[in-house]
Design a protein that fits this description.
With 233 residues, the protein is α+β, with helices and mostly antiparallel strands. Helix content is 29%, strand content 30%.
């Protein structure tokens, strides 16, 4: 197992997480020493130390003086995000779930998406726009880009009968990702889809998921007016 040369701590961190998530290093395992990882990655020991320190603070690693660094016994609970099914969110509030595919096409992504997904210019992605409903009323807009080069099976999916959210949760394992939460003023298009007035405030989640160095998908979820996010810890 010899990855390409890594020169910065976020990439060291991503590689360490990848080995934890694919169970190369299992919960409780002692991982290699910093000096050995630095030699393998072709970077400084300081770079490795920073990456491991961040992961220890997040609860992914358990670092003890003289005992070395181990994968925490429950790193999944502390350090990973379980991507929810929108269908389950609706069912959990005791409403009837509905789904409507608005658009599915292969096209060039805008610059913002290209940057977030680290996609080179000229590469087309699968764009999915759909509306999920609760008791026949708008619940959330799913605006998604899928890297079909990483997931070629996605090109065979119509996404008419079930959502990309549901298909990806079942078919696209990931190693890491990014997520952001925002309150935005609805655009004319968002307002039309959610049946609200343009400019009204709504809640938005944007998420990018990766398999090691390759982007899998970017999704922007824009929820109905008054939506409240509930989570447990």
């Amino acid at each position: 197992m010899k990855p390409k040369t890594i020169n910065n701590w976020p990439d060291v961190q991503a590689e360490v997480l990848s080995r934890i998530y694919d169970r190369t290093w299992k919960p409780g395992d002692l991982i290699p020493k910093e000096i050995d990882l630095a030699a393998e990655f072709g970077c400084s020991r300081t770079t490795v130390n920073r990456a491991l320190r961040e992961l220890a603070e997040a609860g992914t690693l358990d670092r003890r003086r003289k005992s070395g660094t181990r994968v925490s016994l429950n790193p999944v609970d502390k350090a990973t995000l379980k991507i929810p099914l929108i269908k389950n969110e609706v069912n959990n509030i005791r409403k009837t779930y509905g789904y409507n595919l608005i658009q599915r096409k292969l096209c060039l992504p805008p610059d913002k998406i290209k940057t977030q997904m680290r996609i080179n210019s000229g590469i087309k992605l699968l764009h999915i726009l759909a509306l999920h409903t609760a008791d026949d009323l708008p619940f959330v807009i799913e605006d998604r880009w899928i890297n079909q080069r990483i997931l070629p099976e996605s090109e065979k999916q119509s996404f008419e009968d079930y959502s990309a959210n549901e298909w990806l949760v079942s078919n696209a394992p990931y190693t890491h990702g990014t997520i952001s939460f925002s309150a935005i003023n609805s655009s004319t298009e968002i307002a039309r889809l959610l049946s609200i007035k343009a400019g009204e405030a709504v809640f938005e989640i944007e998420r990018n998921t990766f398999d090691k160095d390759s982007a899998i998908t970017n999704v922007c979820l824009t929820y109905e007016r008054g939506y409240r996010m509930l989570t447990t810890f």
